[in-house]
Every structure is written in C-alpha cells, then in structure tokens.
Design goal:
The chain has about 210 residues and is α/β, with parallel strands linked by helices. The protein has 7 helices and 9 strands, in the order ββαβααββαββααββα. A 6-stranded mixed beta sheet has the order 1-2-3-4-6-9, with helices on both faces. It is globular and about 50 Å long.
C-alpha cells in the first residue's frame, strides 16, 4: 500500500507511522486521516507487528488541523466544519482501538487536534523541550476531534486533581513550555530531548 501523507515501515516487530508534512508541522488533513486509518488496519492484521510507534517528521509531532484548508473552505462558503471535526474524532477513536500497543513519540510542536491524537495512544513519550498549545480558542473553536473525551480519560488514569489546571490550559491561547504546562499529568513519560529515542526503545522492548 502506498502512502503520500504519512510514512509506514516495519522493523523488528515494530510498525512506525510518521506524519509526513514537516513544512507545515504535520497537520491532520483529511487525506492524512484516511491514510492513518489504512495504516492502523495494516497494524491490526500484520501478525509480525507487536507494537506501533506514532511520530512526526521534521522534529515536530503534529500542529493540529490545517488552518489554510479551513480558511479556504470558509472563504468559498463551503460547509463541512462539523464533518471535518467528526472525521478527526473518528480517526482518534480508530486509533484507540488498534489491537497492538501504540506509543506516541512526541518532539517539537504539538497543538490542537494533535494533542488528541497523542492522547488516543496507549502511551506517550514526550521531549521536555516540546511546546504544547490547545489552539482551538485562537480560531473560535471548542476543543474538537475528541479532545475533551481523551483529556478527561487521561486525567482519570493520573489524578483528578489535574482537572482544573488541564481545563484552564485548554482555554489558554498561548503556547507553553512543557516544564510548566498542565499536560504533564496527562502523559506517561517526559524525557530530556536527547533521551527520547532511547526511552522509546526501552518501552517497545516490552513487546518485542
């Protein structure tokens, strides 16, 4: 199966899915979501795959939705925002039901729907130099693509006391360094930037 918007490769029982539009920080376009669905199917039915790594190309994980596409749709008076948001949620729900463990390896920027994508994974390894932004408020959106669903469930597996700070962060329009952002209770592992790859290898070793 050929892909244009993601990279898919397998090695040593690990499937690597890479969002591959680094010039725009790997936005979640409709075409990307379709290819993600196909890649998840490959992971499910390939018996040689035991664990899945989801990452972004070019030093960033995912910048969320493609704002240029959204603007073009609005300028052309084309309806479809609701369907696009629902498609994003369906992609994340499909990810949540992949039959193999999925690890999000997060570096650089992660924003908006990209955060929901990461939280839909079973595990998250994030570099301490990453910058996180719940960007929905900047464009007048409520958190979509399943963001509120996955954030509340991430809180449930960590600490209910994180709820207030996470919701406060969700209404913020400013990017935050990982050291100070309330995403910390929502992820599994924070590593120095130079150690994120080794942390990923140690975690995948549990299944391979």
């Amino acid at each position: 199966m050929e892909f244009k918007h993601i990279l898919y490769e397998t090695k040593d029982h690990v499937a690597y899915i890479t969002l591959n539009h680094p010039a725009k920080r790997n936005p979640l376009k409709v075409e990307t979501q379709i290819e993600l669905h196909n890649a998840f199917d490959l992971c499910d039915y390939d018996n040689n795959v035991r664990v899945v790594i989801l990452r972004g190309a070019g030093g960033n994980f995912c910048g969320g939705g493609d704002l240029n596409v959204m603007k073009a749709r609005i300028d052309a008076n084309i309806r479809g925002t609701r369907q696009a948001c629902r498609a994003g949620a369906e992609t994340n729900l499909r990810l949540r039901h992949v039959k193999k463990p999925v690890i999000a390896c997060i570096e650089g920027a992660i924003a908006g729907a990209g955060i929901a994508l990461a939280l839909a994974c079973d595990f998250q390894i994030i570099s301490e130099t990453s910058k996180c932004l719940f960007a929905f408020v900047n464009i007048g959106f409520v958190p979509d693509c399943g963001s509120t669903y996955f954030v509340t469930r991430a809180i449930a597996r960590s600490s209910r006391s994180a709820l207030h700070t996470a919701l406060r962060w969700g209404s913020s329009a400013s990017p935050a360094e990982l050291r100070t952002t309330p995403i910390l209770p929502l992820v599994n592992s924070v590593t120095p930037h130079s150690c994120s790859r080794s942390a990923m290898i140690r975690l995948t070793a549990l299944w391979v």
